[in-house]
Amino acid sequence: MMSSTNEEDPFLQVQAEVLSSLTQTRSLFTSYLRILSLSPSPSNPELLAARSDLLSSLTSLTEDLSDLSAAVSAVQSDPYKYGLEIEEVARRTRLVQEVGGEIEDMREELEKPSVLSANGNGNGGGKGKGLGISGGGIGEEGDEERRDYNAEFEHEQQLHMMAEQDDTLESVFHTVGNLRQQADHMGRELEEQVEMLDHVDGLADRVGGRLQTGLKSMGTVIRRNEEKWSGCCVWVLIFVLILLLVLVLVL
């Protein structure tokens, strides 16, 4: 049943594509952060390639998410018209919001200036020298901040995955509940049909008994009639023989 539902509902098909794209985008984002923490130079070819791939994936993911958002907006006014429950519409709305928020977080991280770009600022460099802060110290501080951000992002990803699993389990529980209700309904119908069959069998037995009794009665009547007509034929033959004897004697 669930597979047929997935084939009939376009939202679920696009949702599967969005979740798959989101998983790939997360992987690209993690790779981008790793490269950025190792070599934060804006001119690093590997960093530029990772940024380009991530931007392309985010753009495609945003387009798919806009389709999901439009589909949710279309059914929010009257969910029952499309055969949806209010809880399902709320789940879809929450999914769109969570994915959209995660996309915005990734874009904000991409728009942040790199550590070297910030250090390349003339005023910033002068202040660093005046305070006696070395470039290596600033780089280490930036690396630590990025490691903290990576850990926080991974934690958010885990929480998001747990929330998705909870939604999936809730959907499965709802589906199992529906199947259980259908099974109970089918069981009651089968019990009613069994009772009807028992009643029909009883009627058939009674009708069969009456038919057998009627057939026996008809057989008895037929045998009696046969015996009666046989006796009449015998007497007629005797009369004919006597008549022939009389005629022979007279002649």
Could you explain the architecture of this structure?
The chain has 251 residues and is mainly alpha-helical. The chain has seven helices and no strands. Helix 2 (10-38) runs antiparallel to helix 3.
Summarize the topology:
Layout: H1 2-8, H2 10-38, H3 45-76, H4 86-111, H5 115-119, H6 122-131, H7 135-250
Helix pairs in contact: 1-2, 2-3, 2-7, 3-4, 4-7
Could you give the order of the helices and strands? HHHHHHH
Q: Number of helical segments?
A: 7
How does the helix and strand content classify structurally? Answer: mainly alpha
Helix content: over 70%
The CATH topology annotation of one domain reads as Methane Monooxygenase Hydroxylase, Chain G, domain 1
Main sheet specs: none
Strand content: under 5%
* CATH class category name of one domain: Mainly Alpha
pLDDT averaged over residues: 75
Query: What Rg, in angstroms, do the CA atoms define?
Result: 46 Å
Distance between the termini: 105 Å
The tally of strands reads 0
CATH architecture of one domain: Up-down Bundle
Shape category: rod-shaped
Unreliably modeled segments: 1-6, 115-139
Membrane topology: Single-pass type IV membrane protein
Family: Belongs to the syntaxin family.
Subcellular location: Golgi apparatus membrane
Keywords: Coiled coil, Golgi apparatus, Membrane, Protein transport, Transmembrane, Transmembrane helix, Transport
